[in-house]
Amino acid sequence: MNKKLILGALSLFLLAGCASNDTKKEESTDESVNTTTDEAGGAQSSAEVTDADGNVTKADIEKENGKITSITIDQIKDGSSKKELGDDYKMKEASSIGKEWYEQVKYLEQFIIDNGVDAVKLDKDGYAEDEDLKSGCTINLTDIMEAVKEADAK
Question: What pTM was computed for the model?
């Protein structure tokens, strides 16, 4: 019975992916979403998006009464977590706002908690349009927001 349930869910997932009308960049992504709900009505969901180069973007969201109360975002590049690398990622030197990757993502996480996922609008190149968000986060958000939206949708 469990095999039938898993196969059925997998089939629906694959059909939903085939029926999508979204236009994607030339690079392909693989997505994985997990959701759990606790007895108090809180929900936790996570999503992973893998780009064509094998880099993984992860988003973990916790909600209470439909509102995001916690979010954690990370990217794994060449087997290393950008958050775990911290200052060793060496983005601060190249950043127009003088912030490391993990600092910019922390700002984005708080922006999403305060304003919601839909408040994050991206330009055609994948960068934030909102001036407040751009003041603390100038990294490309394409894969990040794809993972966040997938986790938020569950």
Answer: 0.75
